[in-house]
Amino acid sequence: MTNLQAGTIRTLEVKNEAPFGWFLTDGEESVLLHHSEMMDDFDLDEPVEVFLFQDHQGRLAATMKKPLITQDTYAWVEVVGVEEKLGVFVSIGITKDMLVSEDDLPFMFSVRPIVGDLLYCTLKLDRRDRLFAKPATEEVMQEQFTTASRKDFNKDITGIVYRATKAGTFIITAEGYRGFIHDSQRKVEPRLGQKVNGRIIDVKEDGSVNVSLLGRRQEVQKDDAENIYDYLVERGGSMPYSDKSFPEEIESRFGLSKGAFKRALGKLMKERRVYQENGWTHIVKE
Predict the structure, then answer these.
(1) Domain residue ranges of the chain, discontinuous segments joined by +
(2) Nearest-CA neighbor of 119 among 97, 156, 88?
(3) Is the Cβ–Cβ distance between 72 and 43 less than 8 Å?
(4) What's the CA gap between 232 and 104, in Å, rounded?
């Protein structure tokens, strides 16, 4: 193993000038600090603190820019590029973005991060000494969690997905709570790194929380009611569905259970926006 490793911050001595910058050394090995990677002038007689990384040719290089993460630290970093056969690239605050290998991403492409999502990462070298960004393990995430209390029940929260599994979705909330979203509490499975909004539906003894991404009952009814009303408008004001329709018909057309359909329809009738007649539902003409 060499003394100078990519992904680390080192304090090195100035060795000599090169056409494109300065060579720095630890006394045994040297690395180039390119002019483009210099933040300001430095005293040639003083040590220089730099971050070591691999340039686009895979060569070890130095930068005076401070990275968001190193081999010894973790932070939230933003996804800035997606390569389907490789993984995703994240910005770590230097000129070169780091790859998160597809091996460290969910198998399903639908839940892989997209540009703008956030991942809690560190830097690691693989067996070939290539530098990668690597998402935090569950054990590392445990160090970030805080404990929720019963008074947090039913509280609206925001969080970031840090783990996506067949059992459900795990998030860390803005407060630091470990949240779990069962597949019955979401309409669409969130992506790894996606920011989500939900509410706490249970607080566990260990201080973690169960979260729902579904709206509260009155909010869901409102959304369903408006979707049904929009469908009526598209059909010219009438549709061959009512609270007497078969559940299979309702599920096929609206993606709703019959109970949810009846609640939404009841809301529209209570507001005198629709009425039912002979198995049909019509918009009330003003």
Answers:
(1) 9-63, 75-136, 145-212, 217-283
(2) 88
(3) no
(4) 46
| Residue count (the chain) | 286
CA-CA distance, 77 to 119, in Å (whole number)?
A: 5
Pairing of strands 209-212, 178-181: parallel
Name the CATH topology of 9-63.
OB fold (Dihydrolipoamide Acetyltransferase, E2P) (2.40.50)
- Tell me which amino acid residue 13 is: E
DSSP symbols for 16-41: EEETTEEEEESSS-EEEEEGGG--S-
- The superfamily in CATH containing domain 75-136 is Nucleic acid-binding proteins (2.40.50.140)
Average pLDDT over residues 121-138: 95
The strand order across the sheet containing 75-83 reads 98-101, 87-91, 75-83, 118-125, 131-135
Give the pLDDT band (50/70/90) at residue 221: low
> What's the predicted TM-score (pTM) here?
0.75
Q: What percentage of the chain carries pLDDT values higher than 70?
A: 97
Q: Which residues pair with 52 in a beta bridge?
A: 62
SS3 call for 268: helix
Dist. CA 200–CA 209, nearest whole Å:
6
Please report how the helices 217-234 and 258-270 are oriented relative to each other, as an axis angle in degrees rounded to 10: 80
- Give the containing element (helix H, strand E) for 190: none
